[in-house]
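Bench log. Compound arrived from synthesis this morning; before running ITC I wanted a structural hypothesis for how pyridoxal-5'-phosphate sits in the protein. Inputs:
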Amino acid sequence: MIDLRSDTVTKPTTAMRKAMAEAEVGDDVYGDDPSVNALQELAAELLGKEAALFLPSGTQSNLVALMAHCERGDEYIVGQQAHTYRYEGGGAAVLGSVVPQPLDFDDQGRIPLAKIVEAIKPNDPHFARTRLLCLENTWNGKVVPQDYIVEATQLARQHGLRCHLDGARLANASVESGQSLSILAAPFDSVSLCLSKGLGAPVGSVLAGSVDLIERARRWRKVLGGGMRQAGVLAAAGRIALLDGMHALADDHRRAKRLAQALAEMSGYQLESQATNMVFVRVDVDDGIRWAERLRELGVLVNPPSNHVLRLVLHRDIDDDKLERAISALSAVAP
Ligand SMILES: *Cc1c(COP(=O)(O)O)cnc(C)c1O
């Protein structure tokens, strides 16, 4: 099966499995797991922050960050189309008593600065206390312009807000822009990064920030049930993902371009966008679920189109040969 649903489907490499088998472990809730500690130190260094925390998922990484920044009745400003708001089950409100203030992203993943200022509430008991600005990079595969990020976070700070980055795919942004992870993360108080997407680890995310923030995050991770014991078997794979995973991303981006070009030239598809490892294409079919089923019969897995738009994601388990086979299959089922 050629799986284009997401880059979360990547399987651990041989090197990762070997490192997992040989990992030194301890009880991480006691802080005793050397492999987890090594991963956290590496993540903090690469992201340019004082400390980092290993978490089971990107969702928990973001939730723990929101809960570490905000108290009950605080508010965070977030994209209407952002993962933390839209695709995390409303966790900040459900579990954190943190009020979301969603605002529309433009097509580059930016919330206009004037809209941010307008949404910041006065200090008055009628309102939730606006505490945090949350941005996302990459968004729909797009690298959010860093000059915007610098401006938006400066503006937020002038109004006393803290800043969190959902950097689930920040490694893709780094490879694409040629800027280091630490430069991209510098404007933020905290940043989450997924190890289990294009970087290829089987499980996990890291959250980086100040020592103080990470201490609060560690407490919330335990409360949320994310305190894992001999988690070093997972962290060992995560460490390899951070050390060796980034160079493969450039190939994913090149293949996404190739796929976008092929689809642009194919009748039946209208290319919407391509950025880093993602391709969005319009497919006008009445029954998207049946259409995806036909593609599956040809050996290609996709999520059914949503509002007639199909998202295709490239990753390290799709080489050039598989990509060409996927293109042939897409051509065969073109509407
Ligand atoms: C995948 C993703 C997450 C959440 O990661 P999970 O490990 O699936 O919980 C958060 N933010 C963005 C932008 C993502 O793409």
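What the model suggests: Residues 57-59, 62, 83, 136, 166, 168-169, 194, 196, 205 surround pyridoxal-5'-phosphate (CB under 6 Å). The chain has 14 helices and twelve strands.
ITC booked for Thursday regardless.
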